[in-house]
Amino acid sequence: MFKKRKLEILSKFDERTIILGPTNANSFGQESLGLKQVRGNGILILSETELFFGMLIPRKDFLIPLNLINKIDIVKSHLGKTKGRKLLKVFFINKNGKQDSIAWLVNDLETWVRILKNKLELS
Question: What is the pLDDT along the chain (123 residues), one digit of tens a residue?
Fold first, then answer.
């Protein structure tokens, strides 16, 4: 059922530009969109220019240009939601020019944090 959607997501990228992923991830929502969002499963990809999340249901793409990311963190919850595991939280400037964040549950969290921080030259 999701194979077609996964192929659609991967077709957006040239394999040579992918730094990390594709990784199955569970989104805990975008902070600026409020508490009423549902978690969503999808594919997380770090490319040379962006951090991309393609949600499976509903079919929704979310991308953050790397130059708009200003912090990477590990948190236990996001927007009042938790799964008892640590989350990757990304802070960025949204399309309205405001500080925003989004968090994902990902396997190999430490690798994601390390590679993102190295790529973005964050400490």
Answer: 578 888 889 888 887 889 999 999 999 999 887 777 767 899 999 999 999 999 998 888 999 999 999 999 999 999 788 888 999 999 999 999 999 999 999 999 999 999 999 999 876
In 3D space, the residue among 99, 104, 108, 77 whose CA is nearest the CA of residue 88 turns out to be: 104
Its pTM stands at 0.91
Amino acid at 102: I
Beta strands in the chain (DSSP E): 18-30, 40-47, 50-55, 60-65, 69-75, 87-93, 99-106
Q: Are 96 and 80 in contact (CB under 8 A)?
A: no
Q: List domains and CATH numbers for the chain.
A: 3-120 (2.30.29.30)
Assess contact for 76 and 62: CB atoms under 8 A. Answer: no
Measured CA distances, 119 to 53, 71, 73, 83, 115 (Å): 18, 12, 14, 28, 6
